[in-house]
Structures are given as structure tokens and as C-alpha cells.
Amino acid sequence: MGGLILHPMKEIRVIVAGEHRPFVTDLLDRVNATGYTIIGNVSGKGHHGVREAHFMFSEQESLEMIMTVVPEEKVEPILAGLRPLFDRHSGVMFVTNVAVSRQEYFGKAPNK
User: Fold this and answer.
1) 79-82-87-90 Cα dihedral, nearest 10 degrees
2) Does pLDDT of 18 surpass 50?
């Protein structure tokens, strides 16, 4: 019995104020990302100082991390789509190399 075969993909993590989550998720839907994960109430320290993970008045005021895994050809359209958001608002984005065992789950036909 053979082991799992891994396929290269890109993981994109975007951390923004909760009020900007719809902007990011709409963009991911428009570029046909097959899915994403949202982690709310993210804490951290960055360019704008410390951000604590707690609800102030609504979920909109906390930081959220939106993560997706896509084929490499979808990275550039996502970066271009996020530019207007980052031109006007604080936030951060990370793009990393990852490997997945079921590439068809991420919008890429399996290699045969």
C-alpha cells in the first residue's frame, strides 16, 4: 500500500478587522477559492500596537484571520483584489507554500 502523494499549493492568511471580513470572503468567492477558514478574536502586536482578542461592542471590532489554500495561479488575483483594502485599512497578509494530499478539494484536477 502506497503512502499519500502531496501536491504543492499556496496558503493565504489575511488578518483584518472583523468589519472587513466580507470584503475578503467576497473576493475569495469571486476568484473561486473552494473554501476558507475564519478564526475570530485574534490577538497580536504589530505596526499599530497591541490588539487584544475580546469583543468590545461587536464582532466587527475584533481582528479576524481568514485562511485559504489555492493553486498558485489564484494567488495573483487575490493579491490584486486585496490591494484596495490594504491601501485604506490596516491588516496583514501571508502567503506560504503548503502541500495537500487531496488537490481536487482545492480547485485543481488530480494528476494522473
Assistant:
1) -110
2) yes
